[in-house]
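Blinded run. Sample ID left blank on purpose so nobody reads anything into the name before looking at the predicted structure. Input follows.
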Amino acid sequence: MLSLIVFDPNYFLFVGPFMLLALWAQWRVKGTFARYAEMPLRQRLSGAEVAQLILRGAGIHDVSIEAVPGMLSDHYDPQAKSVRLSADVLQARTVAAAAVAAHECGHAIQHAQGYAPMAWRAGLVPVVNLMSSAALPMFLAGIFLGWTGFAWFAVALFGVTTLFHLVTLPVEFDASARAIRIVEASGLAVGDELVGVRKVLYAAGFTYLAATLVSAAELVYWLLRSGLLGGSSDD
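Blinded prediction complete.
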């Protein structure tokens, strides 16, 4: 029977550097957004107007544009077919707002065109949510059942979560690539504005990469701790 160790400093030694990287990525994206939120868009279009132009240009007429509370909480909801923009993006007439609005419209275009990785990610969402909600009960069960049961649960949980992050990468990178192409081709941003759009989207993309590295490090840690990787385990 393997023993359950609730606190293991090796976890922080193994995963900690990637957590710090993720924190730095979050700091960087906020700083980059704030910098280009100070740069007015020459065409004086708001984030909502940029989104409307992109959606119409793509022939998409069944996607709404709605406000969502919070900072950098912008997202595309494929179930409701809605591009949801925060106040800092919806009403702002800045390079940062244009970049974020264009990115979310990139997701709407992916959905309309049946982009496969987006469908794969959507299929994983309920599984990830279910496993996350079951984490605490399974953790408590692991205390009574021993390390082996908890180890298998941890591997399954982090395995699915890591897969979700891996599938998310092409979805987010492709949406940003689409956004940059559309903004450049349409002339919505030019010169230093286009440079700003790229920087905002590249910074945002790095947060997804950092989150994937954290998840992968956690998965490897649990595989090692359980003995499922490396051929050894604690008694």
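Unblinding after everyone has recorded impressions. Helices lie at 9-36, 47-57, 87-90, 95-112, 116-133, 135-145, 147-186, 192-226.
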